[in-house]
## 1
Amino acid sequence: MARPYSQRPPRAAYQLTTEGAELAGALRLLAHWGTRHTDRADTPRHPTCGTPIEARWYCPTCDQLVDDEPSHPQVHYV
């Protein structure tokens, strides 16, 4: 869902709908499933150290990883 907040230049804030938020959780589970069922040699890796990249919940404001999947309806997915 887009909410315009500036006419010049045209800008909008984007927020997932309830259905989109539900899908984001499903996609996260699918990503975890995929990492367990793929060849580790084909896994995307961090270019600096070579460690396989993982999907994680992260708070950009606090600069911290979140242990559990967010359940609050106002969580924004990017």
Note: The CA atoms of residues 20 and 26 lie 10 Å apart.
## 2
Amino acid sequence: MYFRRKTSAGRAYLQIVESRRTGEQVRQQVIVTLGRYEDLQASGQLERLLRSGARFAAKAMVLSAAADDAAIKIAVRRIGPALVFERLWEETGCRAVIAELAGARGHKFALERAVLLTVLHRLFVSGSDRAADRWREDYAIAGVEGLDLHHLYRAMAWLGDELPAKEQDGRSPFAPRCRKDVVEERLFAHRRDLFTRLDLVFMDTTSLYFEGAGGQTLGRHGTARTIGRTCGR
């Protein structure tokens, strides 16, 4: 069934008709004549009728709008990552520490927001800074609207900045102290209290290993599954 505008004696009428096949011929049968087209349009009855019927044909209305390029385009953005991890970002002191260190440098962009964006990206999917810049388009993260890709590059370079010679005390023999080391130290100081002590240290052994005769604890021999292949050479 469909609507048809029928003109008779110079007047236009709106009808609902149905096509039916009779043998090899298709004939149109009038189901109902709704009235004069001009009257229906002027009174608003036609719009009310169509809105009423649209409740039972939502899919067809959406498809029709999409076909006519009249569909309303909206953007869907996820809010979960920022809701959960930005609270942790605050409670652990990450935001305060990075904002304090960044403020001393006088950057002209939201450096702390750039670091947060890259951290969130690595928590969920990982990848390059360029990938993080594309990833953030699908997420609602406060304060990252004005950031561009080069800001992410500059934020990562800032974290890797080598500290002056006077701040190299306690450096390892393998690499100089960088800005990220200061961030870690400030975070530890931020969260410590009178009863805080260091009992456990986690080490990323992806590219590290120990060499020696072994020992009773850290350097003991073992399998890769139990203590890691880096711990017994």
Note: The radius of gyration is 34 Å.
## 3
Amino acid sequence: MKAAFLPDRGVVKVSGIDARDFLNGLVTTDVTLLRPGLGRFGALLTPQGKITADFLITEAPSGHGGGFLIDSPRALAQALTDKLGFYKLRAKVAVENLSDSLGVLAAWDGEPAIKPDLAYADPRHAGLGWRILVPEELAQKAADLIGAEMVDSSAYDSNRIAAGIPRGGLDFTYGDAFPHETNMDRLHGVDFDKGCYVGQEVVSRMQHRGTARTRTVRVMVDGPAPEPGAVLLAGDKPVGTMGSTSGDNGLALIRTDRAADALDAGMTLTAGGIAIRLAEPHALRSAPKQTVA
């Protein structure tokens, strides 16, 4: 088993007697189903349905003060804290940015020998393994406890990319992407039965009308990796943008209808002059509707 401390991740805590209902009325996942040891994937959206911040969330046991711990991009942790505070109004909740004292250890390629407090399985994809919320100075001790070898965070990124999991800021732009475009509907990140939350109307409409035409897909790179944001071309026509890469694996945000037409016409996809192949060409034509497990 491998483990890596993720320096790009932060932790926001929401506590108080109204915390569960407060969060459930704001985010895409059903917070009423959370309990200690269980994690869920979700996001806070704009009223127009675009992603402000995506995150994993778990409930802290009473021994850790209870409340809910949000594993979010560290660069967005304070903005997320402020935004949740803005929505607080008269709700009896407290919102804190704990990123200076609590971080995220990812562990994969096996099962933990012992499951520490504040550990939960990553709900997005089985290949992503486990998350453990722990101070950075205790990361090695936690890795030893679960029987994992500590490796660099770049190894986790390689595993994430191979699993086809997008990362905000590299594979899509916060404030400019809908959940369907980042596959949140396929990664157990949107609960379509939970009722209202910010941006819910737009997301539900996209789901039921099947109007998502842009998707994050896995690609194979035949040469040096293009930079994230490089335009993906079919001939001279743009069909998407490149995201993060590792070795010959990569992710791209693609207009699926345009890319499918290009493949049907026998055209080669390129980015920065480098040939790009779709890892799963059939994914352009299949859009399974999946809610939270």
Note: Helices lie at 19-24, 74-88, 139-146, 153-162, 200-209, 256-264.
## 4
Amino acid sequence: MTALALVRPPELSLRWLSVWRRNLLVWRKLAIASVLGNIADPLLYMLALGYGIGAFVPEVNGMKYIAFIGTGMVCQSAMFTASFEGMYSAFSRMHVQRTWEAIINAPVALDDVMLAEWMWCATKALMSTIAILIVLLALGFGHTPLALWILPLGFLVGLTFGAFGLVMNALAPGYDFFTYFFTLVLTPQLLMSGVYFPVDQMPAWLQVAANALPLKHAIDLARPLMLGRVPDGIVLHVVVLAVYAVAGYWLATALTRRRLLK
């Protein structure tokens, strides 16, 4: 393929909806196992750390510690769910099952498949966001209409990290390759974005690094919403997440074209 073909913008059409629906129908057959797999870990961490450490740290930034960590877990769960879908599940459909190859032999372009996969990553992230938000509501937190804005935030986080996952999928020779992403990208996001403790307690140079992380911007939106407050800097946070998402999706599409359309 020519360099121009690799960098041209993704071509959008409504045909992606059929591919997205196909993923939904397949997911429905394994929905219970999928939901448990995506939300069990963050829920266990939230409950164990929230009540365990919460016994020693009653409040953080004006919130009970379980609400503080729970808000971080909402965003973390969306991040991990979308990343997993963009890597392991997409790699299975692309390389192992060769589902993408079959689809693009129909009147559906590879760009349609990529858009569908990107949106499916965000859809799965939204499902995880809903599940954990329901648990937080059941525990007595987030009883404010503003908390509902965490749902579209979860979808946006899914777009961001789903795009990152699809970039790794386009580069991966096998499943083991994804370990790099978990170690070098997701773990720093988890530890430096304010999931477990306030970022403003870290050294100044680490705070600067944390402010470049997309998960940090998501959490800065989610926590005030959980308290019923309008977040500061909404436009900045949304723009940062959107730029990461669109740039990642564009790159993933270009790399996937290079890999599959030789």
Note: The mean pLDDT is 89.
